[in-house]
Design goal:
The protein is built from eight helices and twelve strands. It has helices at 4-14, 31-47, 64-75, 89-99, 111-115, 178-192, 210-221, 234-243, and strands spanning 19-23, 28-30, 55-59, 79-82, 103-107, 123-127, 138-139, 158-164, 172-177, 200-203, 225-228, 248-249. The strands form two sheets. Strands 7-6-5-3-4-8-9 form a seven-stranded mixed beta sheet. Helix 1 packs across helix 2 (31-47) and helix 6 (178-192) packs across helix 7 (210-221).
């Protein structure tokens, strides 16, 4: 496997009917449907003029749509930059200046935050599937187009950017590469040892954090099902464990 796009294509081919993603906003995708969805969105992003080598910042809470757009961007050769939605306008401005995105994809509730940033990208796409897109924003759910040619996705290709201030207080962008993350996630899956196709994973950590996004990749690598919660709610987690027969989840101590 050269990239996570190859992993998802592999899963869609050999286990097309297994449920890949479910979220608490009502979305559900089998592996075949997930592949079809991110390829449509990849075509949509390409039709907007965003292409191989560009960066798109994602400012959104957990949802299946977050993951579909993230994979669509990767499929088109675009780097998604996962941005903490808790940032102030000043902090967000620093991160956007650092990653220099060609566009921003954001939940509707964060469009006002993005619009408050001076020098924000002209191209802004509302994702998450809750109501019409705000004025000046495109509807991410309507993005579709001809699937673009496959870019050269290799193990050393950057699949996404995350940001951190570390100990300095100054934002820094950290590149995540397909091969390194694939090896790390595969090692973790082997160490756990009891993950099988169809295992149920609850995703409650923020997807903008490697801990959250990495758990989703681990589930998808092993043909599991990811149940994505928009935010952490203890009662909802307890209910999900019983209702959805959750076997794995990662949480802060």
């Amino acid at each position: 496997m050269q990239s996570w796009i190859h992993v998802l294509e592999w899963r869609a081919t050999v286990r097309p009917g297994v449920t890949a993603l479910v979220d608490d906003r009502g979305a559900e995708f089998s592996y075949a449907e997930l592949r079809a969805a991110f390829e449509r969105r990849a075509g949509g992003w390409a039709a907007l003029g965003v292409g191989d080598g560009d960066t798109v910042a994602i400012v959104a809470k957990n949802s299946a749509d977050f993951l579909v757009h993230a994979f669509a961007l990767m499929r088109a050769g675009i780097r998604p930059a996962f941005v903490n939605w808790r940032l102030s306008p000043r902090e967000l401005a620093e991160v956007l200046a650092l990653v220099e995105p060609a566009a921003v994809a954001a939940d509707a509730e964060f469009t006002t935050l993005v619009d408050a940033v001076p020098g924000r990208p002209r191209l802004r796409v509302a994702i998450g599937g809750r109501g019409p897109a705000p004025l000046g924003w495109l509807d991410g759910g309507a993005l579709t187009g001809a699937v673009p040619p496959r870019p050269a996705l290799r193990g050393d290709t950057v699949l996404a950017l995350v940001h951190t201030s570390g100990t300095t207080g100054k934002a820094k962008a950290i590149p995540l590469r397909h091969g390194a993350l694939m090896m790390s996630v595969a090692d973790f899956a082997i160490e756990i040892g009891d993950q099988v196709a169809g295992s149920h994973h609850l995703q409650i950590l923020p997807l903008f954090h490697l801990g959250g996004f990495g758990q989703c990749l681990q589930a998808l690598l092993t043909a599991g099902t990811v149940y994505v919660h928009t935010a952490f709610d203890p009662a909802a987690v307890i209910d999900a464990i019983e209702r959805d027969r959750i076997e794995f989840f990662t949480a802060g101590p």
